[in-house]
Q: What sequence folds into this?
């Protein structure tokens, strides 16, 4: 079925598990490697999305996202574009620290991170969450201007996916952090001319553990119009 005029369909894929996953550090702009499982997750996601006729494939310039972007671009036969604007939030002096270490060094910041009170979160030497959403929102507007219709894969990070949703739907930052995205998890969002947006898929897991195929959403992911049941 032909897409309605002026609809951009975004496939927001998170990177796979990293080698530091067991410690759960704040990896924002730190260029960490994928684990073997992380590569397997992205390879499974690429197979699940192989039939999607992507017009563009874009990723963050960090390796954990670039790996998946290269796979999707190869499968779709399009160029793999990288852009640092799609990076995760910059955690500044907290980069690479585990949460317990942040609690020890920056107790007020740790309390803000865990609080639903609506405070802006500011990482020393890094970004505030509101600045982060502003950066992703600007990148999103540029993307929509360059590609007002078609199918675009964006391989990035959990925070980036959340910030895209916040930008499109006007979520406050405390609400934004409520949207989880698994490693190799997929959001699909339609953005129409004029700015209206519709969530089609939220955190569909395309990795190998129990979900080796895309399941009932396969036809939709390849271009069908119905939301998977």
A:
């Amino acid at each position: 079925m032909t897409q309605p005029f002026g609809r951009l369909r975004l496939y927001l894929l998170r990177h796979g598990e990293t080698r530091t996953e067991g410690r759960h550090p704040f990896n924002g702009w730190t260029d960490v490697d994928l684990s073997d499982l992380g590569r397997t997750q992205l390879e499974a996601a690429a197979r699940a999305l192989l039939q999607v006729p992507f017009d563009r494939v874009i990723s963050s310039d960090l390796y954990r996202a670039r790996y998946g972007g290269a796979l999707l671009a190869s499968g779709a036969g399009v160029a793999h574009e990288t852009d640092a604007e799609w990076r995760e939030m910059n955690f500044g002096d907290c980069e690479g620290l585990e949460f317990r270490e942040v609690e020890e060094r920056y107790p007020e910041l740790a309390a803000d991170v865990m609080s639903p009170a609506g405070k802006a979160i500011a990482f020393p030497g890094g970004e505030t969450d509101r600045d982060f959403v502003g950066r992703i929102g600007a990148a999103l507007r540029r993307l929509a201007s360059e590609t007002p219709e078609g199918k675009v894969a964006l391989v990035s990070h959990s925070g980036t996916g959340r910030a895209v949703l916040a930008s499109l739907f006007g979520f406050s930052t405390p609400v934004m952090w409520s949207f989880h995205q698994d490693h190799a998890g997929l959001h699909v969002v339609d953005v129409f001319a004029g700015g209206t947006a519709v969530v089609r898929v939220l955190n569909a897991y395309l990795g190998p553990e129990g979900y080796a195929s895309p399941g009932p959403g396969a036809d939709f992911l390849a271009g069908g119009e119905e939301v998977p049941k």
User: Anything to note?
Assistant: The helical segments are 36-48, 63-76, 99-105, 107-113, 129-146, 158-169, 173-176, 218-221. Confidence is low (pLDDT under 50) at residues 210-217, 225-229.
